[in-house]
Design goal:
seven-stranded mixed beta sheet; alpha/beta; disordered C terminus
Length: 317
Amino acid sequence: MAKRATVFIDGEAGTTGLGIRDRLLAIPGIDLRSLTGDRRKDPGARREIMAEVDLAVLCLPDDAAKESAALAASLGAQAPKIVDASTAFRVNPDWAYGFPEMAPDQTARIRAAQNVSNPGCYPTGAIALIRPLVDAGIIPPDYPITINATSGYSGGGKSMIEAHDARGGPAFEIYGLGLEHKHIAETQLYSGLTRRPIFAPAVGHYRQGMLVSVPLHLDTLVGKPTGADLQAVFAAHFRGSVLVRVMPGTESRLEPEDLNNTDTLELRVYANDTHRQAILVARLDNLGKGASGAAVQNIALMLGLPHPAYAPELADA
């Protein structure tokens, strides 16, 4: 009988932690380990359980995630593999960035990694839209990119969730107007941009679901491409992907909740070749491919376990 993998979720009571736990229960070959009561915050108890498991998932604020990662590192050869869901290590070169579909070698890097940083929800959509066109030489690295995005309120953490659940919250609001949003650094780095993008996030009064959009003037891009050219780049980049789907941009409107409770990411190109303009749009569940779903995808890769995105590959191995 094959050895079962053991996983500890440090911070399993939060939104992302609960989502990861529910998804892991559906994957064969995993045993979940937990701490109860005051032991959840006891560094000694957390270090002890980390020494006993194959992988630990950190669903914690940044400073707490750094402390937990240090606890794991102090175990030396007994240290578990780590998937961190915070922003603490996303631009750290010693951590693999957990977006397998981002580049041809990214899946292999995640599979071999000791430590993986789970991507942010907004960057997942933005990088998927920008990186293929930068790699193809269509978007220059110093191109002035603007990213507009709207998320359900569950992406805003505990205080925002409580505000919307208890008081109704505003119907819609733009935030991050100081242009210092914590997701900008990873978006710029992994999109391959040398110029800092402008990022305008917003939240709507609905629980989950996300749209990320990037407007483009086609004649300012290398080769003056058509909308069909952009679509072809996406189709080639994500060919064979189970979770990232390149869709035809035929709708006159798009709503954000259609992929809720899935781990799918959809990409569309809406182009007007007469006016030489385009809008690139990514749709995803901010709690799925934008958080818990992405973490479980990475966990499966790191532990060599079956997952809907990799089952055929593992079966052939």
